[in-house]
């Protein structure tokens, strides 16, 4: 124990371990002021020693510095460099030489850190472009450029140019392969380049609908075992057969592709199975399609497959299958983030700038389109299966609404309720529709506005303008920026003939939605009522820029040009209407009228004839055609038109008299006599018919002439008595100055009628030719003067407001943008 020494408590057992001699720390020498000062003094620039001592372990090889050059180093203590070898002398060989570096400092050497004493670097050797390998590389680059140009041409819509580029790339690639074979480097053929050329060529053939060539090109790729995974291209071949409607072969190739794709590529297999289901659906094999779609919905559900599954179950009439498929459809996850992330939650300007930047970017637009597509599919399937899954469509709609309320699409429940009301409207059950829509009066403003807009529309169609005005106000109060509500309000004001106020509502609707075509159309109609034809024309020209092929809009423009007196412009616009609806008889008749006003009888005849061909019941067209052939002395052609008029208006005696007149003018007196006799049997008191019967009987020497003359006198006396009674009644009922003028006008008209009848009574002498009398005098009484032709009953052209106003479509009110 004497040799045992206990440690003192204050003594540190680990002292000394952290002591460090700064002499050995060389990393901070650059910052050591003393060391740097010593380097700058004469002590740091000692002369080199020239003595040569025996070589040490350090050889004569210079040490590489940080600048890349090899610099011979001297001893730090000034001792001469040992082991130096004279320049040009052979290096001594020794078997006991130690490893390491040997530094040599020759007399007269300079410190050249950049190695400038070596001179400039030798020039690079130029490529020999005439070599076979260089030519092959150049050709490969050209082929790649052609493939890229082909793809770019197709992306810009130039399919034919893309195909030409693909063909040229194929030709150059084949020349490249031949050159490889000739140069003996066939083993180095670029298979990836060959695959790219063939695949692009097949795609371009397919895009240009050259399906046989595309199939042949795909076959070349598939049969080549040197390509990687060529079996996937059988999907493309199946798509081509699908386009050709060769569905059995399409299924065959889809299944072949499915067999060659491993289970690791799950998404690819799902897409191929979806194609198989669609083909079964096209073939009408709904059970097989249901099997494929159900498998997809279990493995990787998506909206499109769920929609197709509902359609297949609807086609088979499986009620439970429809319900199950609809539930699967509304439970498909969309994978879309909550829209609340786009709402600024803080006052941080940088965060708000980021939110504004991503609020309408490509990703958000894609999410919005995906959600809109899902909602469209759900609404369509609900409207489709609602009448089929229950005994009544109302119960079916109620079930669909309950299912939707329990899903992620809660906001679609109200839209389904409105669709239920629309279905009532289609079934003409207006009371149920109104009751259904009235249930939305206490709901949120958007739904209330939509429901009130539809109620206003219904009451407007029923001509209950007070209720229509009330619900239009309710829709506007719920949503002042609803253009449909403003249009309906303008319609109700228009009915009250307050055109200025109606124009204000239509203008406000256009301010809220510049694409509201109904408001712009109705504003043009309002300007027409206000006789502001130039403003109306401006509205319809703007509308024509939006609705290019709308015959209603072009008819309005033509009508306005006609009212402005520019008939040539009116004809040009009606010709555009004919290009859209070439079989519209009213437009053809209108063109005939305008050409007739311009004095172009041949063009008028053409369009009137075309109008009669498509609609042989227009009495104005028939009148014009019959009168035209009478004026041109083609009475036989006029007969068919007046006979048609007789069938249309059998109670009008004038058409039958015109038929008889045509026979008489054409010289067929026997047929004319028979026609007059038929007319007399139907209208025994007709004076004109009896006059011509007397005349014809006299000329033909018939014994019935005396009988017809007696009946004529009796009919004339009866007609005179009736006319006197009418005149006396008018004179007794007339009051005031206006009544006196009306009475005098009636008497003058009747006197003119009497004078006209007097001319018809005078008969020619027996030795006078039958046609000596003027045909106009004979037929003056019953020839119908050609008045203005009836214009086309087109929407918005000449109808009353409830018929011509383009009111808001009910379907558009359901899902406002």
TrEMBL record:
Where along the chain is composition biased (Acidic residues)? 803-817
What stretches pass through the bilayer? Answer: none
- The organism's superkingdom is given as Eukaryota
Q: Which SUPFAM superfamilies match?
A: TPR-like
UniProtKB keywords: TPR repeat
Renumbered residue ranges of the record's region Disordered:
108-133, 714-817
- Comp. bias intervals (Basic and acidic residues): 714-744, 791-802
- The TPR repeat boundaries are 231-264, 270-303, 483-516, 551-584, 585-618, 619-652, 653-686
InterPro entries noted in UniProt: TPR-like_helical_dom_sf, TPR_rpt
Q: Cite the record's Polar residues compositional bias ranges.
A: 759-773
- State the protein's name: Intraflagellar transport 88 homolog
Organism name = Oryzias latipes
